[in-house]
Amino acid sequence: MEGKLRLDQRKIARAREAAAQIAWDVDAFISERTTVAVERTVLRLMGIDGVDADQVPLPNVVVDHVAESGELESGVARWVINGVIQLSKTPQEVAEMVAEGAIRLTELPQADFREIAIKGRELASRGLDRIRDNRSQRDQMIQRLGEGPRPYLYVIVATGDIYEDAVQGKSAARQGADIVAVIRSTGQSLIDYVPYGATREGYGGTYATQENFRIMRRALDEVGEEEGRYIRLCNYCSGLCMPEIAAMGGLERLDVMLNDALYGILFRDINMQRTLIDQAFSRMINAYAGIMINTGEDNYLTTADAVASAHTVLASQFINEQFALLAGLPPAQMGLGHAFEINPDLEDGLLLELAQAQMARQIFPDAPLKYMPPTKHMTGNIFKGHIQDAMFNLVSILTNQGVQLLGMMTEAMHTPHIHDRKLAIENAQYIFNNARHLGEEIMYRPGGRVERRAQEVLDQAVDMLEEVKRIGLFAALEQGMLADVKRGLESGKGLSGVVHKGETYYNPFEEELRERLQLPQREGAVHDSGLLAN
Questions:
Q1: How far apart are CA 236 and CA 242, in angstroms?
Q2: FRET pair for 298, CA 20 to 30 Å: which of 79, 360, 437, 481?
Q3: May I ask the CATH class of domain 160-456?
Q4: How large is the average pLDDT for residues 39-56?
Q5: Catalytic center residues
Q6: pTM of the predicted protein model
Q7: DSSP per residue over 198-261, as a string?
């Protein structure tokens, strides 16, 4: 990045140090806790799927069953694996017996924990090997087919009907899309279970289910073969089922997941404890699956002013980066988010947008930054909107962004039609092709408007991060320091699903993931490897 913005490297280092301390403090808090979603994820990774006679997902049935016995603090894995051993059944068969009322897991005779640990290691290896194999398949397909150049062209389908989504996803790929994201049905992030099977009705989007993931993956693989390039599939790994959806994505070879540490707290009023625990486990799964995460800092600018609050975006990017590193997720998989959201009527607004984009690119040089289009200031004037999107595309190629979520000229009017998406892709392709190497030719005037703005935002972000480090992230969220939204430590949805770990807590999948990702094991955790060694 020589010859670009002259940013104070000492301040960048201070920002990272503060963000790292913020993340470590939170990690110490969450390491003593689990959630019902984490425990359900363990079951899904064991291969438990399906629903009971009342259409309740079996992972929910089993976790609720153990919780009602007051034994979830030991982790659901201990009880299910014991059932596998005592009954000579598979995890799926044990779950079905629980659903039928044929057994009570916590009343079965208890096997020696050494035997449980051996079986737990076996099940964890088998489940994670499926994800490893999917990652290898993706790598092989990209090597064979190739893929589009960055910035990846990212478009959305949102019909509510998964079979129609598959048709539209193929159409988008043929038009030039590199990433197809299936928007989730409105409100799914607030339901504490994952719907089952293929779904054909959704409002504002399509339900995220494992079968729907499978259908879309198959459709994009088919069109990828036709087009001669790999097409990436994206969905939303957030909300009350965040780690479960991460597991489903890993099992069905999704490539990109919306996965933010703070989004659910700020914009869905999900309890902060619940969200931060869930994001840690979900990111470990995404890291191992080779899934690129997309964070949601761009959303801050929908509730706060893009000029006055630009530093909160940068501060959150630093925090998201550190949480990701703690989960073993490398910079190459960190699609840190930001947005082109400054009021277009502001003089020199383009320079301010350019400063923010170039600053993010230099501070996070290895991250495939996710750049969001103008939405807040879109109007019914589709011609002006198309120009706004063109300016956004120009800044993106100039600053070497990684993922370009394309803006639609009808953004403010209705869910875009197929032809609107085609125009958006053509707009981006035209600008990206004509200005492909423009960034290599541009120098920023030392001390000029762009450089001064970037340094101002960095200064404010450092001050904010050091204040959050002093008071703690929970207090910062309570004070509304991010997105001008205040949340409480004990308020919000999902708090009842937070569980303090007992002395005998056991999660073989976290143990195995930490080993494979070369992360330190949790202090105080019951480690199967340690027990087996004694």
A1: 8
A2: 437
A3: alpha beta
A4: 98
A5: 263, 298, 370
A6: 0.96
A7: -----SSS----HHHHHHHHHHHHHHHHHHTS--EEEEE--GGGHHHHHHHHHHTT--EEE--S
